Amino acid sequence: MLTQTKLADIIAEQEAIFVKRQPKSAALADRATGVLAGGVTSNWQIAQPQPVWLSHGAGSKVYDVDGNEYVDLHGGYGAALAGHAHPAIVRTVRAQVERGTHFAQPTENAIVVAGELARRWGLPRWRFANSGTEATMDAVHLMRSYTGRDLIIKVEGGYHGHHDSVQVSVMPDAADAGPRDNPSQVPSSTGIPRAITSLTLIAQFNDLASVARLLDAHPGQVAGMIVEPVMMNAGIIPPVPGYLAGLKELLHSHGALLTFDEVKTGLTVGPGGVTGQSGVIPDLVCLAKSLGGGVAVAAIGGTLPLMDHVASGGYEMVGTFNGNPLAMAAARAMLTEVATERAYQRIEALRQRAADGIGAAINDFSLNGSVVTAGAKGCVVFSSEPVRDYRGFLTVDNSLSNAHWLFQHNGGVFLPPWGKIEQWLISVQHDESDIDLLIANFRIFAAAIRG
Ligand SMILES: Cc1ncc(COP(=O)(O)O)c(C=O)c1O
After folding, report:
1. For the chain, how long is the longest CA-to-CA vector?
2. What is the pLDDT at residue 177?
3. Does residue 390 carry a catalytic annotation?
């Protein structure tokens, strides 16, 4: 029987191995604290036992400054569907750099990218931004501007970037979250004014009744709802059948709008995201992460009425670097040469291989958990019950997820840190041997915690 003490010992042992393999990372982390806040460039890079400083990436691999090679399934938090230094991206970006990277005037590639996104997502008009946060911020503003209403709905446990309106009940502690049927509006960071937090109403994922309650309680006041159509900041939580279509119908019946945040799911679950797979076309879609093949870019797609509102100046959607030529060239290459039908077929075979291999190990070692996958994304959920919403996610074992992460890392597979929250990302450049190492490491981890 695995006790918490034994698990803590296993984690300590793996952390010691981790640190021993990376003396140069430790030295850089030390040097960085003098000039970088917290010694990193984003708080998410402060993962225990220490941040890993990378030197470069190539294909399906990344290399740390100590020369260790990793199969990269971290994928830069889900942004590396192209893998690293993909030849089509390198060629395109190099050519564009030589022709200039920024004019703040449109270039022809923007039409090609928008046209391809319109085809894949079924939404006719598009605009661009530079990060997922900007895209969801514009979506929230646009829903408010178009409807003339201030309130929005988001689900508990949903992450949509770091602007004020969506930094509410992202990862609340059970003690702060309030009753399931009347969740509290918990600010997810300091610096978010109470007045703004109070405009964001909280529903439960996969629960239409929780949305209906909010709409009924605030008649004519809700601009719309933003939701990840497959939750991907709480492991992976798929929508139950009918949930997405039900949301659209419910919101529209109250004059409110629906935004799908496909920043993570976007190109990774399939060519047209969850929208393409489910056939439920929302009013707005936000994309970012993998769209630029590793170059920063985001996109917002919308229906004609909403985007005509932008076109007429009804909502000021702006930004110096929006649709910059470098991002548009990279996104064009990503959509036309990298994220192709053939690439998705390869990824599907690798998804299946990972799910089968890890699923078999879970059975063989009688672990309490399951593999959940969605296209190129996948994770192991250490819970006896399928997770339907954030309250279920709270019961998932984080220490096991953390131990798994450490075993993978020390065994040469880089998964995203942060325990049970994140997922792996299979890129178009991974192959069977990469997935087999993931499975082999998982078996070593499973044997250790069973032993
Ligand atoms: C679903 C979702 N939306 C929005 C964002 C914000 O994207 P960015 O970090 O590019 O601002 C993220 C980032 O992880 C995300 O997962």
Report:
1. 66
2. 97
3. no
